[in-house]
Amino acid sequence: MSKEPVGRRARYRTETREEAKAIALRQLAEGGIGAVSLNAIGKEMGVTGPALYRYFASRDDLLSGLIIDAYSDLAAAVELAARQGDQGSPRECLRVLAEATRTWALAQPHRYLLLYGTPVPGYVAPDDTVPLARRVLAPFLDALSALPVAGAPTGSRRSALETQLTTWIQATNPHTSGPVLRHGLVWWTRLHGLISLEVEGHFALMGFDPALLYTTEVDALLDDIGAVIES
Amino acid sequence: MSKEPVGRRARYRTETREEAKAIALRQLAEGGIGAVSLNAIGKEMGVTGPALYRYFASRDDLLSGLIIDAYSDLAAAVELAARQGDQGSPRECLRVLAEATRTWALAQPHRYLLLYGTPVPGYVAPDDTVPLARRVLAPFLDALSALPVAGAPTGSRRSALETQLTTWIQATNPHTSGPVLRHGLVWWTRLHGLISLEVEGHFALMGFDPALLYTTEVDALLDDIGAVIES
DNA sequence: AACTTTAGTGATATAATATAACAAATGTGA
DNA sequence: TCACATTTGTTATATTATATCACTAAAGTT
Question: Cα(B71)–Cα(A142) distance, rounded to whole angstroms?
Answer without folding.
Answer: 40
